[in-house]
Design a protein that fits this description.
- By secondary structure, this protein is α+β, with helices and mostly antiparallel strands.
- It has two domains: 49 residues; 146 residues, no CATH class.
- It is built from ten helices and seven strands.
- Strands 3-4-5 form a three-stranded mixed sheet. A two-stranded antiparallel sheet has the order 1-2. A two-stranded antiparallel ribbon has the order 6-7.
- Strand 6 and strand 7 form a beta hairpin.
- Helix 9 packs antiparallel against helix 10.
- The longest helix has 17 residues.
- It is elongated and about 65 Å long.
């Protein structure tokens, strides 16, 4: 009677494990390696071979797939943790625009040092006072804390920075936000006051409210 042989699957080589981890996580940081028994030397070798790409200081991605929109937000937030996703990027995050920004729009304090973006496509906008600190939602993307302005706050920001992004974009955002019930009229008036654009927004807010009553 012959003895049965039990085959055991060999573990993947470290390089393959690291590549799989990068593809799974989207954004990979050196501190993510140790819990998986992987080394920074392996990471460096894969970067040298072009299998892994550096997307900023301490941020790495697999070279084959491009970053998704949300992965880009995670990479930008990891690079600029004090920044808040704003304007076109916040509209896209909340599905309130047909715009598809190639850059990640981040708000930082007007006195903060401008970040070195490296190869991350960032658009930095200076906010101050309550316009910077209010209306921030907190999310986790690929394990990275990402701060994004809420829908109503983003609409008010768009009117404040309408000369940067276009009045048509601000109006689209307002209509979509209201149509999708992502805000209340009180929310819109509150953030219009915070951003000091209540007089600018008044006729548009009255128009959407009137259309709602007529409907």
């Amino acid at each position: 009677m012959s003895a049965k042989r039990h085959s055991r699957a060999r573990p993947l080589p470290a390089r393959d494990q690291l590549l799989a981890l990068a593809r799974t996580r989207g954004i990979l940081r050196p501190r993510d390696l140790a819990p998986h028994g992987l080394s920074r030397q392996t990471l460096s070798r894969l970067v040298g071979e072009g299998q892994i790409r550096r997307r900023g200081r301490g941020l790495y991605v697999a070279a084959d797939p491009p970053l998704s929109e949300q992965e880009s937000l995670a990479a930008a937030s990891a690079r600029v943790p004090h920044g808040v996703v704003c304007l076109l990027s916040a509209l896209r995050f909340h599905d309130l625009t047909t715009q598809n920004p190639g850059d990640v729009w981040l708000a930082i304090d007007r006195k903060a040092r401008a970040p070195v973006s490296g190869d991350l496509p960032l658009r930095i906008v200076r906010f101050s006072g309550k316009a910077r600190t209010e209306g921030i939602g907190r999310h986790i993307i690929d394990g990275v804390p990402v701060r994004v302005y809420d829908p109503a706050k983003t609409v008010a920001d768009c009117f404040k920075y309408r000369h940067k992004i276009g009045t048509d974009v601000a109006l689209e955002a307002l209509r979509e936000c209201w149509r999708a019930h992502r805000c209340t009229m009180d929310d819109l008036w509150r953030y219009a006051a915070v951003c000091r654009v209540a007089r600018v927004m008044r006729p548009y807010l009255e128009a959407v409210a009137a259309d709602d009553e007529a409907g």
